[in-house]
């Protein structure tokens, strides 16, 4: 890996859910492409995390393969970053158990996201949903991460990771780095197409988000039907024009231009023409990536090989950490008798 800052490590995982919407791309993936040029990055498919909600096994298997292909099609490079599937690296669950014996129940009860997701799942709430911040902590601490790219809604989980690392270090001597959240302030939060006061989410109604690999007709229909503001002028003002401003943020992210330049490029005589322009921009941008992803999916064996190789790299690093941890807490290590 030819990174400028080899001593700095970034770790992040993405759940396979079958849909990557444009907010995910602009908020996470696009940032990953920049990070892999500057840091030693570990990007993984968080398949264990996806099990906290009911899954169809055939769909989940397909979604994992789709996400593998998407990682590569979007530009994540196995020569620059370690790309792997979480369940391919047993050290993640091994460290999760060790950390769970150190995690106060009160820490987990304070997690806002658990409370929100538990309300949605109702009777289907499982213990995994409650304890998954511990697995998330293991994901990060295994690789001595310096930074974890997150949105504002994940800050509480980063605080838990930091607390567990400090708690372990105090009890068993310095073992873990204390990671910092890496919030990309240049990445704006993309809001729902129907309600610009709510964050875009695939758990909401289908017409509130745009999947990056949806058909051109679907993308165009969703943009055309997106909520707009009163008037006809196109300018950026989240207070006066929250809906149009949200659409301009999408355009700015795709064009990779500042907002003033974006507004000039996206000017149109009315909202309809503006939306048609934006829809075509999105379609053109993701069409080549979609074709590349579909080509990668033709040869599943070759696709898996890349992530198996990445998993071997990750496991080698992770197991060194596990051995260090086991020794410190008093467990025997197999190769030492």
Rg is: 21 Å
The neighbouring-strand order within the major sheet is: 1-2-3
- Put simply, the count of helices is 13
User: Portion of residues in helices?
Assistant: 40-55%
| Shape annotation | globular
> Stretches where pLDDT falls below 50 for ≥5 residues?
none
Overall mean pLDDT stands at: 91
Count every beta strand, where a strand is a DSSP E run of 2 or more residues. 5
* Sheet of most strands: 3 strands, parallel
> Which structural category fits the helices and strands?
mainly alpha
Order of helices and strands: EHEHHEHHHHEHEHHHHH
Beta-strand proportion:
5-15%
Head-to-tail CA distance between termini: 35 Å
Structure in words:
The protein has 337 residues and is mainly α. 53% of the residues lie in helices and 8% in strands. Helix 4 packs parallel to helix 13 (300-329) and helix 9 (216-224) packs antiparallel against helix 12. It is globular. It starts with a strand and ends in an 8-residue tail after the last helix. The mean pLDDT is 91.
Explain the layout of strands and helices.
Elements: E1 5-14, H1 22-35, E2 39-45, H2 47-50, H3 57-74, E3 81-85, H4 91-100, H5 105-109, H6 112-121, H7 127-141, E4 147-149, H8 155-172, E5 180-182, H9 216-224, H10 242-255, H11 259-265, H12 271-296, H13 300-329
Parallel strand pairs: 1-2, 2-3, 4-5
Helix pairs in contact: 3-12, 4-7, 4-13, 7-8, 9-12, 10-11, 10-12
Short structural summary:
The protein has helices spanning 22-35, 47-50, 57-74, 91-100, 105-109, 112-121, 127-141, 155-172, 216-224, 242-255, 259-265, 271-296, 300-329, and strands at 5-14, 39-45, 81-85, 147-149, 180-182. It is mainly alpha-helical and 337 residues long. The chain has a three-stranded parallel sheet with strand order 1-2-3. It has a two-stranded parallel ribbon with strand order 4-5.
